[in-house]
Amino acid sequence: MLHYYGKNRDTAELEKIKNFNNDIIKNNIELKHKEEKREELSESIDKKMKESAELKEKAEELNRNNEELKQKIGKEQTDNELIRNRNKLLGEEYSALQSKYDFITANYDYTTNLKKVKVDNLKNLTQTNNLVNSTIDTIVYKIKSFKKANICYTYFIEKWNFII
Hints:
Shape: rod-shaped
Structural class: mainly alpha
Distance between the termini: 129 Å
Number of helices: 3
Order of helices and strands: HHH
Strand content: under 5%
Number of domains: 1
C-alpha cells in the first residue's frame, strides 16, 4: 500500500508540474501577446506623436503667416488713411483755388482798363484771397502736424514724392 501511495503522490506531483508548466506556457503566450500589443501601441503612439508634431508645426507656420498678413493689412490701412487724408487736403485746396478762379473770371474783365474796375470787386477779391490764404494756412498746419508726427511725411516722400 505504501508503494501505491507513492505512485499516486508522484502522479499528483507530475500533474501539478504539468499544470504548472501549462500555466507557465499560457503565461508566456499571454506575455508575448501583451508585448506585441504593447509594441503596436507604442508604434501607434509614436505615429500619433509625429502627426501631432507635424500638425503643431503647420499651426505655428499658419500663425506666423497670419501675423505677417495682419501686419501687412495694418500697413495697407495706414497707407489708405494717408492717401484719403492727402486726397481730402488736395480736394480742399482745389476747391479754394477753383472758387478764387471763378470769382476772378466772373468779376474781372481783362479787356477794360483799370478805371472801370469797381473798388468793391477788388475788396471782394482781397477778402476771397484772405479766405483762401487762411484755408491754405490750415492745410499747411495740418500737414506740418503730420510731418511732426512722422506719419505721412515718409509716406509722401516714398510714394508720391511730396515734400513739405
